[in-house]
Structures are given as structure tokens and as C-alpha cells.
Amino acid sequence: MTDIRHIQDFLLCKTPQAWVDNALDNIELMLIDHANCEKKAASTALNLMYRYVDNFELLNKMSRLAREELRHFEQVIAIMKKRGIAYPHIEAARYAAQLRKEVRASEPYRLIDTLIVGAIIEARSCERFAVIAPVLDDDLSHFYLSLLKSEARHYQDYLTLAETATSDSIKDRVAHFLQIEQRLIETEDTEFRFHSGPTSPLA
């Protein structure tokens, strides 16, 4: 198993056990939303490539990231098809939208904040894969564990790009977004999603 202690140390909280319990009660919904998350991750990377065409390091890293996220999407929908799971439209979790509400509008701050948010989302995805994998059936467990290495790299790529986008420290902005992320992860949500808080009280 890929060592993700650096990601666990980066995040301010662990996934609550109540969310894990919710996931086990909603495997099909978890896979549907996971597929959506992979599409959105690829879309985010492509949007950055269109917006910042003069940043060659960003272009290279986001191009690779988009390809990998789309490959993960293909893998998720293949699992869904094998299991006879339909792919209906579902509303997104509040998670990413709430994080992105705090992104500043002017450059280079917009880029810096967007990259920090990307790093945090990838870090949480990686942490959740590691948390849920041991309690899933063998096929899903193997699949989720196989994603850890790439998700950990995506987190690091986003964070490195944020650090190189400015000569100033990004420490305070990272801390700001991590505090928001912790609140979103630890407070209850009305509907279960891959990045939701628990839909039942914390254990």
C-alpha cells in the first residue's frame, strides 16, 4: 500500500467513521459520485490549461493529470457497468463549491487559490480511498488502493504549482482553506456523497 502519511499529516482531520458507515450503506451512490468527481477533476485540469497557456510546467502537469483522471473515470464506469449500476444525474456535494467560494478573483491570487483547492481535494480523495478500501469487497478494495499513488502525486503537483506561482509564502492561504475543509468534512450533510460530511451523527 502506498504510504500516504504525508497527506494524512497535511489534512487537519481524518474522515469520520460515520462517513465510512454511510459509504457502506451507499456503495452504488459512492461509485456514481466517484465517477462524477473524476470527470470534474479532469475538467478542472483542462480549464487550467486553457486559462494559463504561458505556464509550461502547469500545462505539462495538468495534461497528465487530466488523462489520469479520465482513465479513472473509465475504470469507475466499467465497475458500475459490471455491477449493473445505472448512471443517473445527481447533485454535487457542497464540498468543492464551498472551497472555491473562497478563491480570490484577481491574479495571481486566483491561480494560487485554485491550485491550493485542487491540492486539498486530491489529498482528501486519497485519504478517503485509503480509509474505505479495507472495508470494501476485494474488487473495490484493490481498485481504490490502486488509485493512491496517482492521487498522492496529483496533490503534490497542485501544491508545488501553487508554491511556484508566487514568491511569497502560501502557508497562510493553505491553512485558511484547510480550516474550511475540516468544517465541511466534520459537519453533517443532508445527502451522502464521496466528499460529503457524514449524514448521521459523528461516532
From TrEMBL:
CDD domains: MiaE. GO terms for biological process: tRNA modification. GO terms for molecular function: tRNA 2-(methylsulfanyl)-N(6)-isopentenyladenosine(37) hydroxylase activity. This is tRNA hydroxylase. It comes from Candidatus Endobugula sertula.
